[in-house]
UniProtKB/TrEMBL annotation:
Keywords for the protein's UniProt record, in alphabetical order: Ligase
Gene (UniProt): ligD
Name of the protein in its database record: Non-homologous end-joining DNA ligase
EC number assigned by the record: 6.5.1.1
All residue ranges annotated as the DNA ligase D polymerase domain in the record: 28-280
InterPro entries: LigD_pol_dom, MtLigD_Pol-like, NHEJ_LigD
Length: 296
């Protein structure tokens, strides 16, 4: 029998709580739900008013993985959905997680949370810019940190402030709060900086996606600024053998990164980090220090 849990007045059926989802650590679905409930105060502001895409992995990272933008079958009527601009489906809607019951309902599906750089109230108008720094072996997160520091300084010259988090996979994400700007303008500027990074560090950086170009280099992926693209949300778990978390980090941690495992965080690491630092990405939520995007 599926247990029913009440969360802030909403009745939720939570299934298969003893099922092992992450085999490397033996982490169960119940433990994943506990993690999301514990970090909800930090996570929810990064999800609110952003139409969500889900990478679902109900049988773990070695089972079937599928990416979905449409509300899953059986979505409760109290879970908010919002219209999204899609050429192929003018009536498309996506889930927006606003509160703890919605978060726990979505987490029960076993998902990664992915968000666009714009809010539902202003589709395709970005309020932040993102760079996904992805290392091609034998490069690691150590090389990503060096590129992140270069990008931080380059952005600062244009009056923009960068914040870092781990991708939860191999690399880093840099977020930059910006004044509301059409996504295509943000995309063009981000591409320009990626090209500059490669021009200045051709042995270590590549801005093109072709895998043949990437061994030993850091791919500065600027493409996630396009209106149709999404990025793994802060604090989301990733579909990997161990339940790694996409974790906000300090610039001191980025500067000190000297080995590939230095910036790997698991669910138990996050509550003490949040108690110590608060939400390091809170300026993105508050839109603090957002600057205009220079003409590309």
């Amino acid at each position: 029998m599926t247990p029913i849990t009440e969360v802030e007045g909403r009745r939720l059926p939570l299934s298969n709580l003893d099922k092992v989802i992450h085999p490397a650590t033996g982490t169960t679905k119940g433990e994943l739900l506990h993690y999301y409930a514990t970090v909800a105060e930090a996570l929810l502001p990064h999800l609110r008013d952003r139409p969500l895409s889900f990478l679902r992995y109900p049988d773990g990272p070695d089972g079937q993985l599928f990416f979905t933008k449409n509300p899953p079958p059986g979505t409760p009527d109290w879970v908010r959905t919002a219209p999204v601009p899609r050429t192929e489906d003018p009536g498309a809607r996506q889930v927006v997680v606003e509160d703890l019951p919605s978060l726990m309902w979505a987490a029960n599906l076993v998902v990664e949370f992915h968000t666009p750089q714009w809010r539902a109230r202003e589709p395709a108008v970005a309020d932040r810019m993102v760079f996904d720094l992805d290392p091609g072996a034998p490069a690691t997160v150590v090389e990503c940190c060096r590129v992140a520091l270069w990008l931080r300084e380059r952005l600062a010259r244009d009056g923009l402030t960068a914040y870092a988090k781990t991708s939860g996979a191999k690399g880093l994400h840099l977020y930059v709060p910006v004044e509301p700007t059409p996504s295509e303008t943000v995309s063009a500027y981000a591409r320009r900086l990626a090209v500059e990074a490669e021009a200045e560090h051709p042995r270590h950086v590549v801005h093109r996606m072709a895998k043949a170009l990437r061994p030993g280099k850091v791919f500065v992926d600027h493409s996630q600024n396009a209106a149709a693209k999404t990025t793994a949300a802060p604090y989301t778990l990733r579909a990997r053998p161990a339940p790694t978390v996409s974790t906000p980090v300090t610039w001191e941690e980025v500067e000190a990164c000297g080995e590939p495992g230095a910036l790997v965080f698991l669910p138990d690491d996050l509550p003490p980090r949040v108690r110590r630092y608060g939400d390091l990405l809170r300026p993105l939520v508050d839109h603090a220090g957002a600057g205009p995007v220079p003409e590309p």
